Amino acid sequence: MSFTGVEFAVFFPTVFLLYWVGPRRGASGRNWQNAILLLASVAFYATWSPRLLVVLTAAVATSFAAGVWLDARPTEGMDEAQAAIMRKKRKAIAVIAVIMQLGFLGLFKYAGFFSQSLNALLDAAGISDAMPVLRLALPLGISYTTLIQVGYLLEVYWERSPACRDPLAYSAFVAFFPQLIAGPIVRTRAMLPQYYERRALRTDDVAEGAASFLLGFAMKALVADWLSPNLVAPAFSNPGAYSAGALWIALAAYATQLFCDFAGYSLMAIGTGRLFGLTLPENFRYPFLSKSLPEFWRRWHISLNTWLFDYIFAPLTTGRSRFRGRVGAGFVVVFLASGLWHGPTWTFVLWGLSHGIAMAVHHAYDEWYKRRCRKDRRWVEARRSKPYGAAAWVLTQAFFLLTLVPFRSPGLRAAADFAAGLLGLGGGSGRVGHFGFMALFCAAFMVVFHSLQVGRGPALMERFRALPTPIRGVSYGLAMVFLLVFVPLGASTFIYAQF
Amino acid sequence: MSGMLGGWRNLLLVGFCAFATVAATDAALQTVVPLNPLLEVDSAILQYAAGDPTVLVVGSSHARSFVALGRALYERTHGEVRVQSVPVEWGKLTNYAWVLENRIKPLIEARTSSGALRRPSLRHVLIVTEWWDSTSQGNGTSSITMGLPARAWRWRDFLADLCANNLNNYNRNFLQKIWRELWPKSILVQDRGHDRIIEGLRASISRKAPSSAKDPKSIEFWQAMIEGGEQSLFEPSQMKAFDELVSYFKGRDLDVTLLLYPRMPGTLTQKAKDTTLRQFSQRMRAIAQEKGIRFVDITASSPLTDDDFAPDLDHVLPDGNERLAAWALAGDLSFLAGAAQ
After folding, report:
1. Active-site residue A362, yes or no?
2. Residues A425-430: contacts with CB within 8 Å, 24+ apart?
3. Is the peptide bond prior to B87 cis by the omega test (within 30 degrees of 0)?
4. Strand, coil or helix: B152
5. What are phi and psi of A194, to 5 degrees?
6. Which of B49, B37, B152 is nearest to B92 (CA)?
7. Residue B92 confidence (pLDDT)
8. pLDDT value for B147
9. How close is the nearest chain A Cα to the Cα of B173, in Å?
10. What percentage of chain A reaches a pLDDT higher than 70?
11. In this predicted structure, what is the pLDDT of residue B141?
C-alpha cells in the first residue's frame, strides 16, 4: 500500500474513524488506539508481504524482551563488585540484542552484497563461485525499524530511558504504518511516551496534519513523479547520449526529485501521524538553503543523521575507542555507515565516503578559520559577508549535486560515464526531452518552497493563515483541483522505500 | 470550550469551502470537457446479460471501435443484428481468453430451467487483434503500470491475486477502476491520467479546436516499436490463448472472424509492413485457414487517415469509427448484416 494509491483513500479514513471512536478515557482508550494502530500497521505491511511479517514480529519480540530484561537489572544501588558483574551481563545482553537486530538487517540486506564481493575477490585469485549468493526479498522498512529498535535498546542499556513494558504500545511504536516505509526514524524518548497516553483529537492536529499531507502529496505525486520519467531516468540510463548541459539539468532535476520524493513522503507520514494525535519528528528543514555541509546534514534526512551522530559518532569520538577526539575519522565512519545503510553497493560506499571526507575537510577548515577569527575579527566579518555566503552556498549545493551521480547511477562505470558527460567528455549531444510547463513548474515550486523560509517568506505565510476561513478553504480546494488535474491516477513507489 | 468549538467550526468551514470549490470546479470543467464514459468489460458484460447479442466482438480497447458498427447494424436491420463489444483495456490474447472463460462464457452457456439457452441468438464472433497481442512485450506485473486487464476483474479475482502476489501495480488497477466507478459524474476523477481537461482548457483559452497534429517523436516511437515487433511475435502463451478462444467458439458452432485492426498509416513504415506486419498477417491467415475461420486484415488497407486517430496514435476517433463501420459493412464485414438469419 502506498500513500498515493487509491487504496489509501479508503484505508486511512477507515483506520481514522476506528481509532477515534474507541473508549475515550484511561488505559482502555489508550489500548484501543494502540491496538487499532497495530492492526492497521499489520494490514499495511501485509499488503506488501504477509510472509515477511514474521521477520518484523521476531525483531519486535526480541527487542522488547531484551529491553525488559535490561530495565529489570539496573546497576544503581549495588555495591561495586555486584555492579561490575551486572554491567558485564547487561552489556552482553545489549550486544546480543543489537547484533540480533543488525543480524536481521544484515541477512536480508547485505548478505548478497558481501558474498558477491567476496566471490569477486576470490575470483581474482582464481577461485570461482566460492560462496553461494543469497538473494532474499527485503522486508518492508527493515532499515527503519532496525534503527528504531537499536536506538531503543541503546537508550535502555545506557539507562537514559526506561524500557517499555506494554507490548502493545511498543509494537505500535516500532511498526506505526506511516513511518514504516521510509521513516522518519523515530526516537525512544520523544516518541514512545506518546503511546502511553490516550491521544485526544485536536483541531490544530487535524488542520496541520491534513495540510502537511496535502503538501507532501503534491511534492511526491506532482513534482517527483513527473521529473523521474521525463528528465531524470532517460539521462541516467544513457548518459553517453546527452550533452553536458542536458546532464546538468538531469542532475538538478534528480536533486529536486529526490528531495520532493523523500521530503514529500516524510510530510505525508508526519501529517498522518498528526491526524492520529502523534507528533513524528521533522525530517527535512529546507536543505537547499544550506551554506555548509554540516548545515546541510542538519537539514536533510534529519532523523537518520541525528541517529547516526548520537549512536555512532558520539560514542566513537567521545568514548574509549581509538577514534576518541578524532572527529574527522568519525565523520568518515558515520558517512560510510550512512552510505551502506542506503544500500549494499559500491556506489553508495563512494557516496558515503565522499561525504565523510568532505565533512572531515570542512571540519579542519572550520577549525583553521576559527583560529584566524580569534586572531583577527575581520575574518568574522568576511564570513558574514554576502559574497562568502553565496560562495559557500554554491560550493555546498554543487558538492551535494555531484555526489548524487554515484547515488543515482546503477554502477561505478555508469557513474564515471555520467561524470565524464558533465564535463563535456561524454561525446553525446542529446537534449532533455520534456522541458515545458511542468519542468518550469517543478523549478518554481522548489524556489517558492524554499523562499517561504527566508526574507519575507514567513510573514507571507502568516498573512495566508490570517486570511478569512472561506478564502483559505477555497485555496485548499483549488490546490486539490490542480493535483487532480495534473497527477495521473496510478501507482508510484517512493525512492526511500527501497533503502 | 467555546474556543475549541470555534476551532472545529473553522476547520469544518475550511473543509466545506475546499470541497465546494472542488465540486464547483468539476461542474465548470464539464462545460469545457464533457464526461466521456468508456465501455469497459464490466459494463459490456452487464449489457450482454441484459440483452441477447447476435454478434460478439472481443478485443482490446480497439473493440470499442465496433460500437459504431453495432449501432449502424442495429439501425440497418431494425434490431435484428445486435452487436456486443467487450473491450479489454490493454488486453492481449491471454486476457481475452481470461475474459471469455470468466466473464463471457457463463453468459453464453446460461440456461433456463427447461435447459434451453437463455441467450440463444449469438451467431458470429469477431476477434479483433493485432501483432502486439501475440507478443510477450508488456507481460508480467512490473512493467505495465496503467490501464490494465485487471480492470476486467471482479472482487474475488482481485482478492485471489492479492493473496497470491500481494498488492502491486498490476492488481492495483482493479482498485483504480473501482475508485473511478465511485465517482462516475466527476470529470476530475475520470480524467486523471488522460489529460483531456488540459487539452480542453488549452483549446478553450486559445479558442481553437484541440489540435489533431501528432507528436513527431511519438510517431517515431511507434514506427520503431512496430518495426522491432518481429523479434517478439507469436509468444507461445499468447498463441495458446488464441487457440483456446477459437476452439471454444468453434466448439459452439459459431461463425468466427479474425480481424486485424487498422493502424495509423503514419506509424507504418515500409520496413514494418515488410517485416512485423507481414509475418503476423501471413501466420494468422494460415492459422485461420487451418481452423476454418474467416480472416480479415485491414491493418493498412482501411480508409482511415492519420487525422482519424487520437493523439495517442493508437485509438480511432469517433468520426473515424463511423467511417470505418460504413466502409467495413460495405466490404469485408458485410456478411454481418445477415447475422440474424
Report:
1. no
2. A426/A239, A426/A240, A426/A242, A426/A244, A426/A247, A427/A240, A428/A239, A428/A240, A428/A241, A428/A242, A428/A243, A428/A246, A429/A242, A429/A243, A430/A241, A430/A242, A430/A243, A430/A246
3. no
4. helix
5. -65, -25
6. B152
7. 87
8. 45
9. 8
10. 96
11. 37
CA Rg value for chain B: 23
Q: Which residues in chain B have their CB less than 8 angstroms from residue A5's CB?
A: 172, 175
Q: Which of B18, B146, B166 sits opposite A477 (nearest CB)?
A: B18
Three-state DSSP at B285 gives: helix
Q: Kindly tell me if the per-residue pLDDT of B65 is higher than 60.
A: yes
Q: What confidence tens digit (pLDDT) does each residue in A130-141 have?
A: 666 666 677 778
* pLDDT, position A181: 85
Q: Can you point out the beta strands (E) in A117-265?
A: none
Residue with cell 575574518: A379
The per-residue pLDDT for B146 is 43
**Per-residue cell: B40:** 469497459
Looking at residue A453, the DSSP 8-state letter turns out to be T
Q: What residues contact residue A101 under an 8 Å CB cut-off, 6+ apart?
A: A59, A62, A63, A146, A149, A150, A153
How many whole angstroms separate alpha carbon B285 and alpha carbon B297?
9
Q: A327-380, pLDDT tens digit by residue?
A: 889 999 999 999 988 888 899 999 999 999 999 999 999 999 999 999 888 889
Percent pLDDT > 70 in chain B is 91
Residue type, B260: L
Average pLDDT, chain A: 89
The beta-carbon neighbor of B14 closest among A7, A473, A487 is: A473
Read off φ and ψ for residue B288, nearest 5 degrees. Answer: -60, -45
- Residues B285-334 have pLDDT tens digits of 999 999 999 999 999 999 999 999 988 889 999 999 999 999 999 999 99
Q: How far apart are CA A267 and CA A347, in angstroms?
A: 28
3 state DSSP class of A378: helix
Backbone region of residue A263 per phi and psi (left: phi > 0; alpha: psi in -120 to 50; beta: other values): alpha
By C-alpha distance, the chain B residue nearest A433 is B217
- Indicate the DSSP class of residue A3: T
Collapsing DSSP states into helix, strand and coil, what is residue B256?
strand
What strands, in cross-sheet order, belong to the sheet with B124-129?
B83-87, B55-59, B124-129, B255-260, B294-297
Whether B21 sits inside 8 A of A478 (CB atoms) is: yes
- Are B93 and B161 in contact by the 8 Å Cβ rule? The answer is no
B4/A9 CB distance under 8 A: no
pLDDT digits over A223-236, tens only? 998 898 888 988 99
